[in-house]
Structures are given as structure tokens and as C-alpha cells.
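TL;DR need C-alpha cells for one chain.
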Amino acid sequence: MEISSKQRAYLRGLAASRSAIMQIGKDGLTDNLVRTLDDALEARELIKISVLEAAEETPGELLERLAEALSAVPVSVIGRKLVLYRQARDPKKRKIELP
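>> reply
TL;DR here they are.
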């Protein structure tokens, strides 16, 4: 799924007031972490993740790997915070309406 710069800016605005729901540390991306984030995306559609200093990969690299693994749209990397978006598969669970 591709989004426009206007939609990306809208999602960044929504993410600004949200707290990070997960942290990625020295273990990096584990299968369990990816499954947990997949469930979180299905429930919330927009998630923020914090990357700890101990992580071996950069936040940008992690964002790209997660976006590919989760079939999600990379929204932004600000400092050590990542934001991902994926529309809920079930139309009844969709909460975010993109402009």
C-alpha cells in the first residue's frame, strides 16, 4: 500500500500524541516481536515503537525490515521512534480514515 505525502503527514500528526507500545533492544527483531507487532497493527492500525541504544541496527533499518515483514507502511523515523501504519483487514475494525 502506498500513501501520499499528505496522508503520511496526517498519520505523523496522529502518532505524535501516542506513546510507544514496544521497545526494540539488543535482541533486535525476533519472531515473537514481529507477531506481537502484527497483532498490534491489526488492533490499532498505527503504532509507535521505541528503539533502544543497545539495538544493533539503526532505527531506519529496523523500520524498513518491519514494514516489509508486516506488510505495513513506514510512516516516519524521528530520533529513535518508529511509526508504522497498516489498515485493519476487517472493515469493522478500521479506525483511521486517511484524507
